[in-house]
Amino acid sequence: MNPKSLALSAFLALTTAALSQTTTPITPWTVADVYKAAANVGGTLNGAEWTPDSRRLTFLASDNQFGGEPGDLMAYDTATGQTYVLIPHTKLTALLSSPSNEKDKDHRARYGAPSYIWGPDSKHLLFDTDGQLTVVDEKNGTGVHVATSGAGSGDDPQFSPDGHYLAYIRSHNLYLAALHGGSETALTNTGNDKVLNGEVDWVYLEELDVRSNYFWSPDSKRVAYLQTNEEEVPAYPLIDFIPTHATIDAQRYPQAGDVNPTVRVGVTAPKNSKTVWLNIPLSAKNDYIPRFGWADANTVWVQLLKRDHKHKELWLADASNGSAHKILSETDEKFFDEHYDVKFLLPQSQFIWSSWRDGHTHLYLYSFDPHGNAEARLVAQLTAGDFEVAGVSGINATQQRVFYTSNEGSPLEEHLWSVGLDGRNKRQLSTEPGVQGADFSNDGENYVEFSSSYTEPPSAQVCTGAGKCKPLTHGTMPRGHFFTAPVPIEGKASDGTTLYAQLLVPDTKTNASVPLIVNPYGGPHAQTVRNAWNGANELFDQMLVERGFAVLHADNRGMGGRGAKFAYAAYRNFGPVQFEDQIAVLDQVLKQYPQLDAKRLSWWGWSWGGSFTLYAMTHSDRFKTGIAVAPVTDWRNYDSIYTERYMGTPSENPDGYKEDSVVNYAADLRGRLLIAQGTGDDNVHMANSIQFIQALIAADKPYDLQLYPRKTHSISGREARTHLFERILAQFETYLK
Q1: Which of 67, 97, 256, 667 is the most buried (most CB within 10 A)?
Q2: Where a domain ends, among 153, 175, 199?
């Protein structure tokens, strides 16, 4: 038996053993129970942050932990191993406001905005609540407001390394506030609704995973920032229909083939706000700058990605005069995956580069001359093998070791590893089944490890670099409710590629046939079939099984976690290959489980998965009903960075856009369709659903529609989610049973 099969067998054995211990009386699931149970499993470590001096780990208590109460700011001391209340929630509540804007709340949740950041002295914290910046003294819990709330509020705050200044974005410009007396200073003054100085625009935030567009130099004397000009980018109207007089938010959103924002990197200083622009050559096609930062106190590094997603470069620039030279370039035959992070090792003049040049995403160590014009020199390939490195978690400069997560051993799991900066002495630090991640202290000596599996809710423990750990939190499986183990499935694609899936099937004691719900995502980069806790979605599956439905999740070619060749299937292909793989797994499952009713099939999904639902129901007559949440119906509607990475531009690939856009096949819809959409969705705009509905009307096709006013792509919040999933359940009950 190969290692992957062993991992699957171990996963199933552990699952069965865990479930056999339950003796609590069973209460039938409801949708409300699902969200209540998902919120109460515990185990998460909210707002976990290391102090800059690496001595403490702080987090916000989610329940009555360690003598604290929900909302208390807790601290774990690495020297004593003790956990205590640092600032009680009563003081924090009195000081801080809560985000009230629906889009702001959604973006903070989706993009992982920190709840607070530590000052360099490890004694003061800064809280950002809807743009109101408050610096809090940990000793006495007193706070000072730095930027006011409302119009002109602060955003993306950052302390200078020496702790003298706080930088933030206000009205699309960079500002400084002196923390020890002195007035506020504007570092830039050219920002407006179309020109963003240091501010992250929507498409960079969503598709390049950019969290900040300005950075302090190590000596606190200068700030490098990205200027984004959206003047020629088309605006999409996001309408709020709730007020008596509807309001419009004009979102700058480049669709496939549109003009992209033009960008450039500048350097400015607190004592001299004149900007020095770096001479990085961007083409007229609006190339991208996914990452940049400081290589040393005088040198800025800039990563350049060409708009075709096939050429990536690394440049060094003199911060004083802007002169620049290229030190690394890389080309891919189809597209680069979404790994853009570069880790510079200061002051060693080295950096760690991520690449799948050998077919899998691995780490490479380079050295460079910050004062010369020579290209960077490859020192060592740090990782190699038939697995994917998810990312660098931390670096210990003293021990000369890098810590990273990868799926070595099984594509269904992810573990923490370390390796020397010479590529030797690789060690696996996490060993429990499931998916692990880690957040390291600045010195790389300690880390907090996050872990979960399909039957183990999230847990967190504090560990040393040697792997000695102390548990902090551990989630608890919901008691008193039905829970069944997923059956791991290994299917085969037409080319022989192994396809992983999970099947949840009721334990039928009669000859009654079982309706089957297919619930894939299917889109690039993502991976849904993993041995990881999936929160409310996982418990919703349990409710479906309890009510007599079987549920199938499968990952197809074109998705992530399996290397370049597996991902390349999505190149100029947003439908046919993915659908072929899903049908292949489905047919193999139906053959293996005769109790499943091949005449009572359903398909549902969200976002790319929602588009996939529409593709399935317009390219097959096998599905009695389907649900598409926030679907892209015409790929010309979606943003430039994501869509062009795989599909090219509409002018380059007109046939592909026509064939893979489901709006063109609305007349072929079979089965009863439910479309769900947030009217405030700034990711997949409501225009997608409206255009598809218009095509359905023209073809005289019936459909069901559920709108969620003001809600964005996540349709977040317990009330909205409960309503949505009750509506989804009703669709299955009505048309599948």
Answers
A1: 256
A2: 153
From 710, 712, 706, select the one nearest 725 (Cα to Cα): 706
Counting the structural domains of the chain, the total is: 2
User: Residue 563 above 60 pLDDT?
Assistant: yes
Statement: residue 14 has pLDDT above 50? no
DSSP secondary structure string, 371-437?
A: TS-PPPEEEEE---SSS-EEEEEEEETTTTEEEEEE-TT-TT-BEEEEEETTS---EE---SSSEEE
Per-residue pLDDT at 104 exceeds 80: no
pTM for the structure as a whole: 0.93
**Model pLDDT, residue 103:** 67
Give the range of the structural domain holding residue 643, as residue numbers without chain letter. Answer: 485-735
Structure token pair of residue 367: 């050295």
In this structure, what is the dihedral angle of CA atoms 504, 506, 507, 512, given to the nearest 10 degrees? -140
Strand order in the sheet with 292-296: 292-296, 299-305, 311-318, 324-331
76: in domain? yes
pLDDT digits (tens, 9 = 90+) for 409-450: 999 999 999 999 999 999 999 989 999 999 999 999 999 999
Q: Give 503-517 pLDDT, tens digit per residue.
A: 999 987 666 799 999
DSSP string, 650-718: TTT-HHHHHHH-GGGGGGG--SEEEEEEETT-SSS-THHHHHHHHHHHHTT---EEEEETT--TT--SH
Q: Which helix (H) or strand (E) holds 502?
A: strand 498-504
Cα 198 to chain centroid distance, Å, stands at 22
Cis, bond preceding 234 (omega within 30 deg of 0):
no
End-of-domain residue from the set 101, 128, 153: 153
pLDDT score at 8: 42
197-208 core/surface letters (b: 16 or more CB in 10 A; e: else)? bbbbbbbbbbbb
**CA torsion, points 714, 715, 719, 722, in degrees to nearest 10?**
-80
**In a domain? residue 405:** no
* Mean per-residue pLDDT, 548-562: 97
Question: Which pair of tokens denotes residue 305?
Answer: 């990605």
- In the chain, the percentage of residues whose pLDDT exceeds 70 is 93
Q: Which residues contact 536 (CB under 8 A, 6 or more apart)?
A: 34, 35, 38, 721
CA distance 126 to 118: 6
